[in-house]
Specification:
- With 634 residues, the chain is of the alpha+beta class.
- It starts with a helix and ends with a helix.
- It is globular, with a radius of gyration of 32 Å.
């Protein structure tokens, strides 16, 4: 899931909007600092309270974001593994610490800055200009006063000021970049021996006492969970949709009602941009230098120089590495200051455009004109949609009717036969299991485990289907007899003891290797085979012929000066002893051509490390009290 989230598109538009007011914030966060003052607090940070109400609203916002990203596949098990509550609490604590430090340093955002930020939010504008009535209307709709809302936004801007001071003070030298390049591009070759745990299985001898002792001491672990077998009726929407009739008037009415919202595709531009940062509180010289750089980009781009190369050379945000490629965007996706680019032609380069904290230069790479699909073209699609909607409504109607029959005591099989619907029985399943025929429908499983022996479920919606559920059989949690679990216990104990034998042997061999420095000799004495990984980069995510070793995620540190690893390494059921074989120096001739991109990458990573250390320093000095009981409340 984390890989999926990392691949989500993060454009410069999002970066631009940091610290500005977003409607999502209003909907989920409004007034969190001011409501339910009697509710238990989650934490205090140097006396500054994080209330239960604030935490609950932020948690709900985070939860909804994950649900939207994962399109209904967020299971309770996945949610538990994400540890969202503790992660969110850490973020809120960091925010408090940063705000407090910024205020202490005199970096509080001014009234002018706050008003400028609020005035630039599109949701508060009418005809492109800030509208006070619209502003107050939105706040009232979300139960916020201007004072509450503006205080929260001032905090956000204040924290951005602190970020600016920290990041602007971070530097990286050419020598540091060169050394980084040398280490990252150096290739190494390792020798290794592998000791499979399976080779020691035969040495393990288990007694009956070992097995009984494990069984008696681990009954809670061995206990089988509550299991259910459910019988259910299915009402697939498409079955009821097949006979639905749709008139021409219904089709036309649907088209007219949804023409602008669903069937009109607004004009799109494919854009590249150069973004030049203007530090908070920049003096006249700094502003002049930034403006000169931006004007140079405009001049060179209009003179025919490749815009992607200009972005790599001048832009100082994350898009630089991609040549400033923004992709396709509609006018509504752009900040209001950039709306003017929609009046530009393909190939045209904008003047310098000012946005908060930045100077932007934009080039139109391509365009797609606004287009609205015709009723004729959309008739088949609309017909399918209307029939599907009618099918869903009819399925709900029949399911409700059959539920009343079930509540009256009618036999399930008889109801199914009379209504021409399918009756099915699940295999035994426990909480957390996914049935292939049901899929990731958490409502189905949740409902099943709330039913009593004679209960009838409410109508449960699935993937284009409704269900009615009833418990057929139930197995309460119980510890299985020893003979039932004996094979698994024996297998687990043998593997565990075999691992202990192999890890002890491997550590003994490593101690010997550290003294003798000769892996080939050691391997020969112990009937082991020496293998080589072949050449690979030090920071490669996986070692050739071995794969990923979690202990080496930060890179391999073995060298001619330190040829023997300090410890043995484990991957699944194999233990490895590693030794340095040789290295190939980095091609330093390529360094100069990659220096600029490497410097930006190194600076970004260094800034992140500096910021993290800064936050850790604040935490070490802070008085933080967490109330875990309040945190666990739903």
């Amino acid at each position: 899931m984390l890989d999926f989230l990392r691949k989500r598109k993060r454009s410069w538009i999002i970066t631009f909007l940091l610290g500005l007011i977003i409607v999502v914030f209003i909907a989920f966060y409004g007034g969190s600092k001011y409501q339910d003052r009697g509710a238990p607090n989650v934490a205090e940070v140097n006396g500054d309270v994080i209330s239960q109400h604030e935490f609950a609203l932020q948690y709900q916002k985070t939860l909804e974001r994950y649900r939207e990203l994962l399109k209904g596949s967020l299971t309770p098990e996945m949610l538990k593994s994400l540890n969202l509550k503790n992660t969110l609490l850490e973020e809120l604590i960091q925010k408090r610490l940063l705000r407090q430090e910024a205020q202490e340093l005199g970096l509080t955002a001014s009234d002018d800055e706050l008003m400028e930020a609020i005035g630039q939010v599109r949701e508060f504008q009418v005809a492109g200009r800030f509208n006070k009535d619209r502003y107050l209307q939105l706040l009232r709709a979300n139960r916020l006063t201007p004072g509450e809302f503006e205080e929260e936004q001032r905090d956000q801007l204040t924290i951005q000021h602190l970020y600016g001071v920290i990041l602007d003070s971070t530097r990286i030298t050419d020598a540091e970049v060169r050394e980084r390049y040398r280490l990252e591009r150096e290739k190494i070759n390792l020798q290794y021996v592998r000791l499979p745990v399976s080779d020691a299985i035969a040495e393990v001898k288990l007694s009956e006492d070992d097995i009984k002792k494990f069984y008696d001491g681990n009954k809670e672990i061995l206990k089988e969970p509550l299991k259910l077998q459910v019988e259910y009726l299915s009402y697939p929407f498409d079955r009821f949709a097949a006979g639905a009739q749709v008139s021409e008037k219904e089709i036309e009415d649907y088209y007219q009602a949804n023409r602008d919202s669903k069937f009109r595709k607004p004009k799109e531009l494919k854009l590249r941009y150069v973004s030049i940062r203007v530090p908070p509180g920049a003096d006249a010289k700094q502003q002049e230098d930034a403006r000169a750089r931006a004007n140079r980009v405009v001049a060179e781009a209009r003179g025919g120089k490749d815009f992607a190369q200009l972005a790599k050379q001048f832009s100082d945000d994350a898009s630089a590495a991609k040549g400033g490629d923004l992709g396709w965007a509609t006018q509504g996706q752009l900040p209001p200051q950039l709306a003017k680019v929609f009046g530009m032609a393909k190939g045209e380069v904008s003047d310098v455009i000012e946005t908060p904290g930045r100077l932007q230069v934009v080039r139109v790479e391509d365009s797609r004109e606004e287009k609205t699909a015709t009723l004729k073209d959309l008739t088949p699609e609309i017909t399918r949609s209307l029939k599907a909607d009618k099918g869903k409504r009819e399925a709900a109607k029949i399911a409700d009717r059959d539920r009343e029959k079930m509540l009256s005591g009618n036999d399930l099989a008889k109801i199914a036969q009379e209504g021409g619907v399918a009756v099915s029985v699940t295999p035994w399943f426990s909480s957390g299991e996914v049935l292939p025929e049901i899929g990731q429908n958490q409502e189905f499983y949740k409902t099943a485990f709330t039913l009593g022996p004679k209960d009838v479920s409410p109508v449960v919606e699935g993937n284009n289907v409704y269900y009615l559920l009833k418990i057929k059989q139930r197995k309460d949690p119980a510890v299985p007899p020893l003979e039932t679990v004996r094979p698994n216990i024996e297998k687990g104990l043998k593997e565990s003891k075999a691992y202990e034998i192999v890890i002890q042997k491997a550590n003994g061999l490593l101690d010997q290797l550290k003294k003798e420095k000769d892996l080939a000799k050691l391997a020969a004495q112990n009937s082991l085979k020496v293998e080589e990984t072949g050449w690979f980069l030090r920071n490669a995510p996986q070692l050739p012929k071995i794969g990923e070793l979690p202990e080496l995620r930060s890179g391999v540190i073995l060298s001619a000066e330190k040829p023997i690893a300090d410890k043995v390494f484990t991957q699944k059921d194999v233990i490895y002893i590693l030794a340095f074989k040789g290295s190939q120096g980095a091609d330093m001739e390529q360094f100069e051509s990659e220096k600029e991109a490497l410097t930006k990458q190194a600076l970004a990573e260094t800034r992140q490390q500096v910021l993290q250390k800064f936050i850790e320093g604040l935490k070490s000095k802070a008085k933080i009290q967490i109330h875990t009981g309040a945190l666990e409340q739903d």
